[in-house]
Amino acid sequence: MQRRNFVKVMAVAAAPGFRYVANAQSIDPKTMRDLAAVVLPESLGRKRTDKIAADFLKWVAEYKEGAYTSSGYGNPRTQTVPPNPAKNYADQLSAFNGVITKESVAAALEKAKIDRIPNRPDGRHIAADLIAYFYNSADGEDFLYGVEIKRDDCRGLSNSTQRPKRWA
C-alpha cells in the first residue's frame, strides 16, 4: 500500500462517524429482521418488515452526523442532525441472546425507560428507534392513513384531483 493511500484510509477510520458505521455493519441482518417482525405491526407482512429492517440498517450506515437540516418555514434557526444513534445497537441486540420475543423486547424497553415512541431514532434502544424510523417514514404514514399518500413522491398535476389508492 502506498503511503498516500494508507493516510487516506487512516483518516477515514479516525473520522468520528466511522465507528458507528462499523458498528452498524456488525449488526446481523437476520437478527434485525427478527426484531422488525416482533416490533412492527403483523399486518405489514414479513416481506415488508424485512424491507423496513434493511432500510433502517442502510439509514444507520449512511447517517451523516452534524449535517444541516432544513430550518422549516418561519424558523430561521439553523439546526444540525444529532450524533448517530447506532453506537449501542449491537450491544442491545446481543442482550437478547438470540431470542427476540414480544416479552423480551418489552422488558428491554422498560429497562431503557422508554414509555413512548421517540420523534426520531435517538439511540436509547434499537427497538424503539426502528419503530420511530418506520412511523416517521412515508410508508409508515401510508400505513397509518390506509392510503398511498406517497409524501416523498410527486404525483403531478394530471392526477392531483384523484384520491390516493387504498394502501395494500
Question: Structural class from helices and strands?
Answer: mainly alpha
Strand content: under 5%
Report how far the terminal alpha carbons are from each other.
53 Å
The largest beta-sheet arranges its strands as: 1-2
The total domain count is 1
One letter per element, helices H and strands E, the order comes to HHHHEEHHHH
Helix content: 40-55%
Number of β-strand runs:
2
Shape, principal axes of CA atoms = globular
Q: Kindly state the mean pLDDT as a whole number?
A: 85
Reported for the largest beta sheet, the result is:
2 strands, antiparallel
Low-confidence runs: 5-22
Tell me briefly what this model is:
The chain is mainly alpha-helical and 168 residues long.
Comma- or semicolon-separated keywords:
168 residues, mainly alpha, two-stranded antiparallel ribbon, 2% strand
What is the strand and helix layout of this fold?
Elements: H1 3-14, H2 18-25, H3 29-39, H4 46-61, E1 68-69, E2 79-80, H5 89-94, H6 102-111, H7 126-135, H8 138-145
Describe this structure in words.
There is one protein chain. With 168 residues, the protein is an all-alpha fold. It has one domain (3-136). Helix content is 48%, strand content 2%. The chain contains eight helices and two strands; from the N terminus they run ααααββαααα. Helix 3 crosses helix 4.
